[in-house]
Design brief:
120 residues, mainly beta, 60s Ribosomal Protein L30, Chain: A, 1 helix
Length: 120
Amino acid sequence: MEVREKGQYLMLYFDKGEEIVEGITNATREYTIIDGRISGTGHINRLEYGVLTNADPIFFTKSLVEKLLTVTSFFGKIENREISLMINSVDQEYVIHMGKVFRATAEVETIIFLEVLKTD
């Protein structure tokens, strides 16, 4: 993963096979980010995501997709160092996959933008 700093933004460029959530977590620690906003686009080849099926207690029904997906948007937040990431994506059969991201693996041209709102 390559990190580029642009003002209050960090741009994370992922290579094929790199794990997206892990990369965001590492950048959050390295740059001591407390609060931030996450956005991005790209292509992934593996996605573990969930859809909220119960609010009390919180429970997600998880799905695993292991094929090429086009990500139209990653969006989320870093709040008090905790990462919450959502996704909108589509596969080659035009099936939509969206929900809370638990794990995602980059294929090509995957970029995450972190807007840093507060640091240590």
